[in-house]
Design a protein that fits this description.
The chain is an alpha+beta fold. It folds into 2 domains: 247 residues, 2-Layer Sandwich (60s Ribosomal Protein L30, Chain: A); 206 residues, Alpha-Beta Complex (Phosphoribosyl-aminoimidazole Synthetase, Chain A, domain 2), CATH 3.90.650. The chain contains 14 helices and 16 strands. The strands form 3 sheets. The protein has a 6-stranded mixed β-sheet. A 5-stranded mixed β-sheet has the order 1-5-4-6-3, with no helix packed on it. A 5-stranded mixed β-sheet has the order 2-7-10-8-9.
Length: 463
């Protein structure tokens, strides 16, 4: 343990940020199963809250949606600030007490929504966790659409800095880049190739930090020639990094989960487990014994630092080539997908890692069979699992997603992904419809080598 490391941790905490909460799970956000359960138990209100991984609207030719932002108190929202628009994206920052108390979580949601009067549908919502009660908030980005000739779709997503590098300063550019890159990653996955616009979400109690954050935002959007609308800080007075992003596609969306058929192949665009390098690097700053344990497994400290640096680079640099590849194999807007020419469905994995396959199984109502689990930094991931250092050794960085397609098209897509430096491979197939489940070949469990990870999988299956 270094004095410098703990000084930085204390600096984050004084700013109202929790720099280590993400380490065990690979994300500082409420997991999808907890969120689904809380939303399922909600009482009816004028707000329709869903748990999709994106939102999308028809794009009227040449007319970008208008975004109206409102920030509310979690405990006592000022509903006079409502906007009379039918669609919104939401980011919530909630206290850690709800993580293991689903009834309390549902109660907080019911209390928050009960006084809202305007009907609005929230398909994409993100819930960040905080240890600071006075850092809680709810943010709605209301989406105003325009009439006109429909020529495609505008997709929308939001994200937080679900992981950080606590050895860096709180106002490091990497921390502002992470949520914007994460938004773009999902927009690329859905086939967006144009009209990118970012709406950063940020805050700090220090004006100097706010100034640095704004410079970082300008640097990122200038680097990639992206449009940005800065709605200023949240004015909660606690450090926060997040973003909402929109982009356009003139193709049909590759989210035809109801058209997934038996024998279709499951492609993974990049190996799993890549986030473990950042997790173990951070844990090694807390407990130096981890370095010794790594070395007994043939992993040097320099190996870990190099893997961590690769992870941070991935988390802060968009993969625009993914959007172009996905778009290429989607039908034109208005056309029906052809199973031997088009991708049928895509779904992100990211920090969910292999657990994201259960989301895909649930929304497609299919039984998936996995016969390969490709892992990046495999020895690092195995160590994290065998030593029970993290709860999900398969958590991954950006660019790790699933694609469902027939064999005829999957081979072509695999070649194209690999030409753009993706380490894509087929990990399994769709066994049958009508039974949402995921099973593994016996050799995969040995390859996974993660008792703690498998216990999570069994728990999800039981649900």
């Amino acid at each position: 343990m270094t004095e410098e490391f703990w000084q930085k941790i204390e600096e984050y905490r004084k700013l109202g940020f929790d720099p280590l909460r993400w380490v065990a799970t690979g994300s500082n956000e409420i997991d999808n199963w907890t969120l689904n359960h809380a939303v399922k138990e909600m009482k009816r209100s004028s707000i329709k809250l869903d748990t999709n991984w994106y939102d999308a609207f028809h794009y009227a030719d040449g007319k970008a949606p208008d975004l109206s932002r409102r920030v509310f108190s979690i405990r006592d929202p000022a509903v006079e600030n409502e906007v009379e628009l039918k669609h919104a994206l939401a980011i919530f920052r909630v206290h850690k007490e709800i993580e293991n108390d689903s009834s309390l979580f549902t109660g907080i949601l019911n209390n928050f929504f009960r006084n809202f009067r305007c009907k609005v549908s929230i398909s994409k919502s993100t819930f960040a966790v905080t240890e600071h009660r006075d850092a809680q908030f709810a943010l709605f980005d209301y989406i105003g659409l325009h009439r006109g000739d429909k020529v495609g779709f505008t997709a929308a997503d939001n994200a937080t800095a679900h992981v950080i590098d606590p050895t860096l300063k709180p106002d490091s550019e990497l921390h502002t880049d992470i949520p914007m890159t994460r938004c773009i990653d999902h927009l690329n996955l859905i086939g967006c190739t144009s009209g990118f616009n970012l709406y950063p979400i940020y805050d700090s109690p220090q004006e100097s930090t706010l100034d640095t954050i704004r410079k970082n935002l300008d640097a990122f959007t200038s680097r990639y020639n992206l449009k940005m609308d800065d709605y200023s800080s949240l004015k909660i007075g606690k450090l926060f990094f997040g973003a909402t992003g929109i982009a356009n596609t003139f193709k049909e969306l590759p989210t035809n989960y109801d058209q997934i058929e038996e024998t279709m192949q499951i492609i993974i665009t990049n190996p799993l487990g890549s986030l473990m390098a950042l997790s173990l690097f951070t844990l090694a700053q807390i407990d130096e014994k981890i370095i010794s344990t790594l070395e007994t497994k043939g992993v040097t400290n320099q190996d870990l630092v190099s893997a961590k640096d690769e992870c941070m680079k991935n988390l802060s640099e968009p993969h625009f080539s993914l959007g172009k590849i996905i778009s290429k194999y989607c039908p034109n807007f208005g056309d029906s997908p052809q199973k031997n020419d088009n991708l049928i469905a895509v779904h992100p994995l990211g920090s969910d890692g292999i657990l994201g396959l259960w989301k895909l199984a649930r929304i497609s109502n299919c039984h998936l069979v996995v016969n390969d689990v490709p892992m990046m930094f495999e020895e690092i991931a195995r160590l994290a699992s065998s030593e029970a250092l993290v709860t999900n050794p398969t958590a991954a960085m950006n660019g790790c997603h699933t694609i469902v397609a027939t064999k005829d098209i999957s081979n072509i897509v695999l070649d194209e992904l690999r030409r753009h430096n993706f380490r894509a491979t087929v990990i399994g197939f769709v066994a049958r419809k009508g039974e949402p489940n995921v099973t593994f070949e016996s050799n995969v469990k040995e390859h996974f080598a993660a008792n703690i990870g498998l216990s999570i999988l069994n728990k999800i299956t039981d649900k």
